[in-house]
Structures are given as structure tokens and as C-alpha cells.
């Protein structure tokens, strides 16, 4: 019986090690990312406690944590998060709904692209914060002005990437479809949209970053609530922990949305037609 037990342990032990290694390699990216964050947080806390740098300038992870508990316990955090989230989703979804069709039309029809390309490039190059005073005049300081600046920041990367995606479609696929007398709507459904999907996802990912910048800028300039407004007020009163808290909330939302977009991109990766298969 003892030899059987010993043999069972000997057999099971390599299986456990192999299983552990497989689990690590499968989640290596996430594990290393979490380890990097822990190292940065630990170094930040040590620097804050050592007194090498004035805490009023750096705060510390624990101070930010306690400030976050007080902020959300009072109810202000949930209100600001709701306001910022509603503004962000409204502007970003509107940018997607407008940017993709406009990009398709400009990418497919050369004359329309030549007609509107200077306008798109001008508005894309213009700093959005410089337009904020106009948005305040046009829409006031309520939600509309923030939605406008978020939309303006996100829509042009989507349009430009959509145009690039349409222009880089393999011409062999289009020629084959036309040789079989395919209708325009069939070409769009089976070739154009699947082929341009990677460019669409890239444009949405770029637009996401611009949208997050827009929400912070908009709420700092003209707002009475929201994460950006809280950061502005906290900075004016030297509450560094709340400023970092707002930064972490905005950046954290960006990381979550970016990961969701990346998963969506992987999910539809096989949808793209390949002429060489």
C-alpha cells in the first residue's frame, strides 16, 4: 500500500507542476502586468513615506485609497462617475455611429473624399480645447457641450481609419465579386465591411483616447459635476490624493474599454476575407 501511495504522489507531482506552468503561460501577460503595477505602487508608497518628496506633491497609494473611500462614501463619487459616464458614452457612441458611415462613403467615393478631406483634416488638426469657448456659447455648460467635445475628439480618428481601411481592400476580391455581377450592397456586406474591420477597430481604439481627454478637458473648463470637475476643484485646493484618484478612475476606464475593444478585435479577426486561402 505504501508503494502504491508513493507511486501516486510521484505521478501526480509532475502533473501539478505542468498544470501550474500551463496556467502561468496562459495568463503570463496578466500576471506580469499585475506584478509591474504592484512594484510601482510599492515604490510610490515608500517614496511618499520616506519624506524624500513632499507628500503634497506626490500623495501615496494608501492616501489615495482612503480619499477614494471618503469620496464614494459621501455619494459625490457616484454622482460624478454617473455624469462623466453618461457624457462619455453619449459622445463616444455618437462618434462611432457618425464616423463609420462617413468614413465608408469618403473611402468608397473618391470625389466625396476630395470634397470633404480638407474639412476633416482641418477639424482633426484643430486643438479641441480651443473650440471649448464656442461650445459653451452654443450649448452652455450643461451636458451638451461636453458631449460635443467628446464627439469631436473621437469621430475623426474613426473616419480617417475607416477611409484607410476601405482604400486598402484587396482589389482582387473586388474584381472577383464584380466579375460575378455582385450588387453593391453584396460587396459591402461580404467584402468591404469585413476587410475594413481591423481599421475600424483601430479607429475606435484611437477615438477612445481622444474621448477620455475630451471629457476631462470639458469638465475642467465648463461643468458643475463630473470627474474632471472634481479634479479641477481638488487641484485648486491642493488635494493631490483626489487629483490622482480622478486620474486613476479615468485611466482605469480607458484600460477597461481598450481591453474590451481588443477582445472584440480578436473575436472578429477571422471574419476578414483572405484571397490567398
TrEMBL record:
<protein>
    <submittedName>
        <fullName>ABC transporter permease</fullName>
    </submittedName>
</protein>
<feature type="transmembrane region" description="Helical">
    <location>
        <begin position="121"/>
        <end position="141"/>
    </location>
</feature>
<keyword id="KW-1003">Cell membrane</keyword>
<keyword id="KW-0812">Transmembrane</keyword>
<dbReference type="Pfam" id="PF00528">
    <property type="entry name" value="BPD_transp_1"/>
</dbReference>
<feature type="domain" description="ABC transmembrane type-1">
    <location>
        <begin position="81"/>
        <end position="261"/>
    </location>
</feature>
<feature type="transmembrane region" description="Helical">
    <location>
        <begin position="242"/>
        <end position="261"/>
    </location>
</feature>
<feature type="transmembrane region" description="Helical">
    <location>
        <begin position="30"/>
        <end position="47"/>
    </location>
</feature>
<keyword id="KW-0472">Membrane</keyword>
<comment type="similarity">
    <text>Belongs to the binding-protein-dependent transport system permease family.</text>
</comment>
<feature type="transmembrane region" description="Helical">
    <location>
        <begin position="147"/>
        <end position="166"/>
    </location>
</feature>
<keyword id="KW-0813">Transport</keyword>
<keyword id="KW-1133">Transmembrane helix</keyword>
<dbReference type="InterPro" id="IPR000515">
    <property type="entry name" value="MetI-like"/>
</dbReference>
<feature type="transmembrane region" description="Helical">
    <location>
        <begin position="210"/>
        <end position="230"/>
    </location>
</feature>
<dbReference type="InterPro" id="IPR035906">
    <property type="entry name" value="MetI-like_sf"/>
</dbReference>
<feature type="transmembrane region" description="Helical">
    <location>
        <begin position="88"/>
        <end position="109"/>
    </location>
</feature>
Amino acid at each position: 500500500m505504501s508503494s502504491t501511495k508513493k507511486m501516486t504522489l510521484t505521478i501526480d507531482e509532475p502533473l501539478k507542476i505542468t498544470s501550474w506552468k500551463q496556467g502561468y503561460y496562459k495568463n503570463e501577460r496578466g500576471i506580469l502586468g499585475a506584478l509591474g503595477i504592484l512594484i510601482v505602487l510599492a515604490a510610490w508608497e515608500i517614496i511618499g513615506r520616506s519624506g524624500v518628496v513632499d507628500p503634497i506633491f506626490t500623495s501615496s497609494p494608501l492616501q489615495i485609497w482612503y480619499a477614494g473611500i471618503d469620496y464614494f462614501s459621501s455619494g459625490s463619487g457616484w454622482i460624478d462617475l454617473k455624469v462623466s459616464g453618461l457624457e462619455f458614452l453619449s459622445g463616444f457612441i455618437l462618434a462611432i455611429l457618425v464616423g463609420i458611415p462617413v468614413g465608408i462613403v469618403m473611402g468608397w467615393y473618391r470625389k466625396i473624399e476630395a470634397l470633404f478631406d480638407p474639412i476633416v483634416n482641418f477639424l482633426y488638426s484643430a486643438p479641441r480645447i480651443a473650440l471649448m469657448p464656442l461650445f459653451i456659447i452654443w450649448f452652455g455648460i450643461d451636458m451638451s457641450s461636453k458631449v460635443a467635445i467628446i464627439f469631436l475628439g473621437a469621430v475623426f480618428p474613426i473616419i480617417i481609419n475607416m477611409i484607410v481601411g476601405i482604400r486598402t481592400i484587396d482589389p482582387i476580391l473586388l474584381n472577383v465579386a464584380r466579375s460575378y455581377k455582385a450588387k453593391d450592397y453584396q460587396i459591402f456586406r461580404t467584402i468591404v465591411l469585413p476587410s475594413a474591420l481591423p481599421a475600424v477597430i483601430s479607429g475606435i481604439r484611437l477615438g477612445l483616447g481622444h474621448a477620455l481627454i475630451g471629457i476631462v478637458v470639458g469638465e475642467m473648463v465648463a461643468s458643475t459635476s463630473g470627474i474632471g470637475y472634481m479634479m479641477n476643484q481638488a487641484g485648486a485646493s491642493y488635494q493631490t490624493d483626489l487629483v490622482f484618484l480622478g486620474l486613476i478612475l479615468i485611466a482605469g476606464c480607458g484600460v477597461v474599454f481598450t481591453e474590451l475593444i481588443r477582445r472584440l478585435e480578436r473575436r472578429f479577426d477571422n471574419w476578414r476575407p483572405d484571397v490567398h486561402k
